[in-house]
Amino acid sequence: MAYSGPPDWQQQPLPPPYGDPVYPQPQYGPGQFAYPAPPVPTAYGYPSPESLAPSVSVVWTGWVLAAAALGVAIGSFQTWARVVSTFGGPGTTIDLAGTSGERDGKITVVIGAVMFAMGLLIILRQGRVWVSVAGLVLSAVATVVSLADISDVSTTSRTVSSIGAGHIDVGSGLYVVLATGLVGLGASITALCVRRVTRI
Predict the structure, then answer these.
(1) Crossing angle for the helix pair 59-77 and 105-123, to the nearest 10 degrees
(2) What is the pTM of this model?
(3) Vertex 41: Cα angle to 37 and 46 (nearest 5)
(4) What ranges do the domains of the chain cover?
(5) Which residues fall within 8 angstroms of residue 92, CB to CB, at 6 or more apart?
(6) Structure confidence by residue, pLDDT tens digits, 136-166
(7) Alpha-carbon distance 167 to 180, whole Å?
(8) HSE (CB half, 13 Å, CA atoms) of 24?
């Protein structure tokens, strides 16, 4: 009988061939990549300074806002109401400033000072978004206060005139605060919308 080799239980598996093992490669579909794409470097391999620099308001809006703030503050010290009394004799004129008594001129003076600080920040190229928003809010408050006082003076004048005691005229200071408040409002809106990237 011919020899047929060792039995099956004595047969050992052959060793793997020499060389690097071959592993199955994963298949990627369209638009899929094995690794995320690296960021695109600049000429020197770093992000550009413009992409890291914050944006600020244009400088000229700061000058306009600062000028409007001075107008609000100056108008607060001027005449807000002129009282002309005809009761019991010849007419007597009394000028009332915005900061006299309990009038709102004290509020607008503070508003004008803070508005000026916001304008100065923009001039110094530090006009971040919050600076423009603060200028916008302050200018709006100054405008609303002046409109409210103009309405109050007009209403009081009609009451005084109805009893024949004279009349009250709106003073020039209120119109100055109103006009410069509107200018500050426009400058703040422009400062918020028109912005430039700072240089690093």
Answers:
(1) 160
(2) 0.69
(3) 130
(4) 67-193
(5) 84, 85
(6) 999 999 999 999 999 999 888 888 877 777 8
(7) 27
(8) 3
